[in-house]
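Run log, item B.
One chain of 295 residues. Sequence copied directly from the ordering sheet:
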Amino acid sequence: MRKGAPVPSLRRWEAGFAAAGADPILRPMQDDLTRLGLLDEEDIVLDEAALSLALLDHPDTDPQPYRDLLDAVAARLDAVGGEATTAWERADALARVLGEEFGFVGDRDSYDDPANADLIRVIDRRLGLPISLSILYVAAARRLGWTANVLDVPGHVLVLVGEDVAPVIVDPFRGGVAVGRDQLGAMLAAMGGGPVAAVRHVAAMPNRAILVRLLLNQATRAEQAGKGRRALTLYARMTAMAPGYGHAWWERARLELIDGDVAAARNSLAAMLEITREPDLRQQVVDMLDALVAT
């Protein structure tokens, strides 16, 4: 965890796992999840972390073939683009290897399928969401020592390849096609507020935020499908992996209340209070805690 970042205590995380119905059989993988929450931001390896998250839902799956596939992607990328020096050359190599040779593209036909945010199923099907595909692109690039980041664009996720001087933006959902300035401007303007206002909301995502986004896609779809317990499990994973992410604690508490577990909801809200510095939000959490104590 970054130095100075306020986070809830490890004991609170473990209590939260118990409240969310942690299965003792899966405990070794849950321990891995807690360790992921303790890693410094720069020590998180995106594809390995995303694979660990997926394994929580596939306890009987041998992870080695998937690790081998990730290694094969990196090896092929090195063979194709190892001599590349410019961002354009590296972006082209990423698109050729991941988009063309390995066939990773966006799932347009069943976009909301939970499998699209599960890295094991993404690798199996060669289909995914923008966030899961972006993880594969960025992780492969970083394995070669290239600079690459997931770019948070309103309504979408892209990949930024290269340094600040002359970077290239690509869209993994469309097979790694390059996104020019005019295309990006149109994409941002379409989200409302005009291109100038929208640009302020475009930023490279930290590693932990990327993984939260991956789980959040699954959680929102689970709740939309009426699977509240599944959504609660996913928010519990978020709070273990990214304990400084307040929204996950709030959503977890909400679902715990729906599930009738007031004690667990209080625990989650107390954890959120520890990391919340914005006065109005702190007051909202305090008011909710007071209301729960009164019930």
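Observations after the first pass:
- Confidence is low (pLDDT under 50) at residues 1-26, 195-200.
- The CA atoms of residues 6 and 47 lie 26 Å apart.
Flagged for discussion on Thursday.
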